[in-house]
Design goal:
By secondary structure, the chain is α/β, with parallel strands linked by helices. It contains 23 helices and 15 strands. The strands form 4 sheets. Strands 8-11-12-13-14-15 form a 6-stranded parallel β-sheet. It binds cobalamin and iron/sulfur cluster (SF4).
Length: 503
């Protein structure tokens, strides 16, 4: 839903895997199903007949689509090797293989670049060797654990393989490319799987290499993919200084935490001068209780201070609030009132336990659905206090207030120059977005999504427990992880601002 309106971004993970396959001497094509259709995909199968097909499964909600496409692939090209990788399928590998019923040969867990060459070699010369590739899970069992890439500096996404680069945008940053400056997150919020995927490691690209990559990107705008931007002030500053030295003129989007923003004010101020236009802050809750629950150890007053600071440096801020299915009408009303008092864009997501998150194991409430497609943090998968349809009415009413506030006439007039500039360049993504809200966010549609036939059901989580052993959550095990690339003071700062008791 989100990517139908507010943004659509280039699949950098897939481009990196494609680059690794190409480096190993293979001929590679990429098809991005965010912007191309299933018919386009099937046409590529029919005309090109690849020996191998790989799916990127970052999002749980996409699992049924991947499984169905794998089955279609198997029936057209029975000898083609089909595998999947990416964030969500790394946490659900065995289940994905079970749903595919033989149509997916293997799931590669973890970072996709390191094992690609060995996997493709095995497919070509000795299929029994597939099961020995690091990260591989087949129906016969599990191979060695996944391994990390040598260094982020060694990576370069195969950006040239995307056929519709002008389709990627976020708000007025249209068209927009994406880039990584770091990987992983040292915090450990209970609802998030970014840190569990990377075993709480944190690695950075050197500033020289990061800026080299920026100069190779044609788009005027960049979405910085880092989970928390500029954790380490000197790293963010060094990249910024190199951008300034080279006279690079682009606009940027980052995501970060309120406490990081306050700790590294100078870095963000500098980046605002360089072209930082939008910043996304995960505020998550507007009360201390909620913040504790999500293990965001940022006090609400700190978050508010962060918002005030961001306003002073002229960056547009979007914030996220997590709504709980247990909310009643009053709770939504309070949120609506709060939101209309602040100038920031507010995004509302619904509290959703995911495989790979701590809440998947600790949530005491029973899931009301096992339909993957509803696990997109825009649907309620836990019992609602209000009747389900009324919950969606409140959710959409709240989102609508915000939508009207930010995409209403005032905003459109305010954006007139930009709209004209974008249209003149043939960039229509942002303009189309302004009119699409009601056709996507609609309580009837969201309610109807629960009534669809379910072909693939997730397995239930194990019985809820109070404490979760961290090693069991990680895709990349902590034992094999590189040290976090942050200095001692930042490590202490992370420690003071998280609540987890672990490593
Ligand atoms: C950027 C981002 C987005 C972008 C998407 C950009 C895009 N086109 O891919 C935007 C902003 C659009 C987005 C939206 C959403 N996101 Co998001 N997003 C991220 C984020 C911050 C970084 C992902 C990224 O690009 N990383 C950099 C690249 C290099 O890494 P990567 O894609 O993971 O790829 C590596 C591996 O996964 C693997 N890999 C990937 N593909 C493949 C394929 C093969 C064959 C192989 C072998 C390996 C492989 O190898 C790659 C290189 O090492 C992650 C957090 C995270 N750190 O993972 C959340 C994250 C993936 N998002 C999440 C969520 C919940 C969402 C939304 C549902 C939120 C919403 N409702 O608004 C939507 C859904 C969008 C959709 N398409 O359905 C959750 C995923 C939860 C889940 N289990 O499904 C995450 C983990 C955040 C979190 N805190 O929990 N997101
Ligand atoms: S700060 Fe929390 S929510 Fe953000 S990426 Fe890290 S663990 Fe996830």
């Amino acid at each position: 839903m989100y990517s139908k309106i507010f943004l659509r971004l280039e699949p950098v993970g897939l481009e990196l895997v494609a680059a690794a396959a190409r480096r190993a001497g293979h001929s590679v094509r990429v098809i991005d199903l965010q912007v191309e259709s299933h018919a386009d995909y099937l046409r590529v199968l029919d005309t090109w007949a690849p020996d191998v097909v790989a799916f990127s499964g970052n999002y749980l909600a996409n699992v049924p689509e991947i499984v169905d496409l794998a089955k279609a692939t198997r029936s057209r090209l029975p000898r083609t090797f089909v595998f999947a990788g990416g964030h969500s399928v790394s946490f659900t590998a065995k289940e994905v293989l079970r749903h595919a019923d033989g149509a997916i040969d293997c799931v590669l867990r973890g970072e996709g670049e390191p094992p690609i060459e060995a996997l493709l070699d095995a497919v070509e010369h000795d299929r029994s060797a597939v099961a020995r590739v690091p990260g591989a899970v087949t129906r016969d069992g599990q191979g060695p654990p996944p391994v990390f890439v040598g260094h982020l500096d060694d990576l370069l996404p195969a950006r040239d393989l995307l056929r519709h680069r002008r389709k990627y945008f976020i708000g007025q940053l249209d068209p927009c490319a994406s880039i990584e400056f770091s990987r992983g997150c040292p915090w450990d919020c209970t609802f998030c799987s970014a840190w569990t995927f990377y075993g709480r490691s944190y690695r950075v690209k050197t500033p020289e290499r990061a800026v080299e990559e920026i100069t190779q990107v044609g788009e005027p705008n960049l979405f910085i993919l880092d989970d928390v931007a500029f954790i380490q002030a000197d790293h963010g500053m060094a990249i910024g200084e190199a951008i300034a030295r080279r006279g690079i003129d682009k606009r940027y989007y980052v995501e970060t935490r309120g406490d990081v923003l306050l700790r590294n004010k100078e870095v963000f101020k500098f980046w605002a001068q360089l072209g930082l236009k939008i910043m996304f802050l995960g505020i998550e809750a507007i009360d201390e209780d909620g913040l504790r629950k999500f293990r965001k150890r940022v006090s609400f007053s700190k978050n508010f201070e962060a918002l005030e600071f961001a306003r002073t440096i002229g960056v547009n801020v979007a914030i996220n609030i997590i709504a709980d299915p247990a909310w009643d009408r009053d709770r939504f009303r309070v949120l609506r009132e709060w939101c209309s008092e602040i100038p920031e864009v507010v995004n509302i997501s619904v509290n959703t336990p995911y495989p790979g998150t701590e809440t998947w194991f600790t949530e005491a409430r029973k899931l009301t659905t096992l339909d993957y497609r509803l696990f997109d943090i825009q649907h309620a998968v836990l019992p609602t206090t209000l009747p389900l349809h009324e919950f969606y009415e409140e959710l959409v009413a709240t989102q609508q207030v915000l939508n009207r506030k930010h995409l209403g006439m005032r905003q459109i007039w305010g954006a007139t120059t930009n709209v004209a500039r974008l249209l003149a360049k043939g960039q229509t993504n942002f303009v189309k977005m302004l009119f699409k809200f009601s056709s996507v966010y609609d309580p009837d549609l969201q309610y109807a999504d629960h009534q669809r036939r379910v072909d693939y059901e997730m397995s239930l989580p194990p019985p809820p427990r109070a404490v979760v052993e961290r090693g069991a959550l990680y895709v990349h095990q902590a034992a094999s992880r590189r040290p976090r690339e942050i200095d001692a003071a930042t490590e202490r700062f992370v420690d003071e601002t998280r609540i987890g008791a672990g490593d």
